[in-house]
């Protein structure tokens, strides 16, 4: 998405993240973010601090504004190219912040006319519900985004700044059965809740069950990729990443800061 952002706006937004500015030219315009092979003079570029040839990379970059760490030298060649180096502690994180603030298109809060919402649902401010969203009697915090075809069943609690991508199903009964004396399967009562804490992202097509007797819990700032399945009574800690197609069976506990690779399957009660 093409924008027109001044260097001064970028520097003011990054605030205390900025250590220094080399080659001051605050009226420079940045119009887009691009991959390294497509960088031009209107791109906000960045250089990974671990690169052994980062000085050369900066010299050769076509960009006029480059995010760098404090181990770069501003040379006469850079001055002749009218380059400005914005020195920050973490160039990639600075790029991420600028990209999200200035270049990512943001949804305006609102509820699509096809959405169905229970009259007793408790929903916070700045809420977005896409087409065909169905919301039961539940609690949803501020700044939540539910994309098209998401279903949230009764008894679910969703925190602030949660994003749920299309087609996810949250808080329906878990898959719990016992065999009776005749070896027939009898459903175990599914009476618990699903609790999703703040800043969680849930991918498209995910299914997350509510608890049976206890609750299913997704910890703060955890990210769940597309097509994952999380069963009843699962406890996921904070800052956990589940890559695509992960299957977490019932009563599993995943502690804080865990990264789970694609298609991993957890046995229950682990």
3D architecture notes:
The structure is a single chain. The strands form 6 sheets. Strands 7-10-13-16-21-24-27-30 form an 8-stranded parallel β-sheet, with no helix packed on it. It has an 8-stranded parallel β-sheet with strand order 8-11-14-17-22-25-28-31, with no helix packed on it. Helices cover 12% and strands 29% of the residues. The chain has 270 residues and is of the alpha/beta class. The two termini are 45 Å apart.
Please compute the radius of gyration using only Cα atoms: 24 Å
Instruction: State the strand order across the main sheet.
Output: 7-10-13-16-21-24-27-30
User: Which descriptor suits the 3D outline?
Assistant: elongated
**What structural class results from the helix and strand content?**
alpha/beta
In DSSP terms, counting alpha (H) and pi (I) runs of 4 or more, how many helices?
4
Q: Percentage of helical residues?
A: 10-25%
């Amino acid at each position: 998405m093409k924008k027109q952002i001044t260097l001064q706006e970028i520097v003011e937004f990054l605030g205390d993240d900025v250590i220094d500015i080399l080659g001051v030219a605050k009226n420079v315009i940045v119009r887009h973010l691009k991959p390294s092979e497509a960088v031009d003079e209107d791109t906000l570029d960045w250089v990974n601090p671990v690169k052994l040839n980062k000085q050369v990379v900066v010299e050769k970059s076509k960009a006029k504004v480059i995010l760098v760490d404090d181990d770069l030298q501003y040379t006469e060649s850079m001055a002749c190219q009218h380059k400005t180096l914005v020195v920050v502690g973490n160039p990639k994180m600075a790029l991420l912040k600028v990209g999200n603030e200035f270049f990512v298109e943001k949804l305006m809060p609102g509820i699509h006319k096809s959405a169905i919402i229970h009259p007793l649902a408790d929903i916070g401010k700045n809420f977005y519900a896409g087409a065909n969203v169905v919301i039961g009697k539940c609690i949803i915090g501020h700044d939540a985004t539910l994309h098209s075809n998401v279903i949230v069943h009764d008894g679910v609690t969703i925190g602030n700044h949660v994003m749920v991508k299309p087609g996810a199903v949250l808080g329906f009964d878990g898959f719990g059965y016992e065999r009776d004396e005749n070896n027939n399967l009898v459903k175990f009562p599914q009476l618990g809740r699903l609790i999703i804490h703040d800043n969680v992202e849930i991918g498209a097509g995910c299914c997350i069950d509510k608890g049976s007797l206890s609750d299913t819990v997704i910890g703060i700032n955890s990210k769940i990729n597309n097509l994952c399945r999380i069963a009843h009574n699962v406890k996921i800690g904070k800052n956990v990443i589940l890559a695509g197609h992960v299957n977490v069976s019932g009563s599993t506990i995943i502690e804080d800061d865990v990264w789970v690779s694609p298609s991993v399957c957890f046995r229950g009660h682990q």
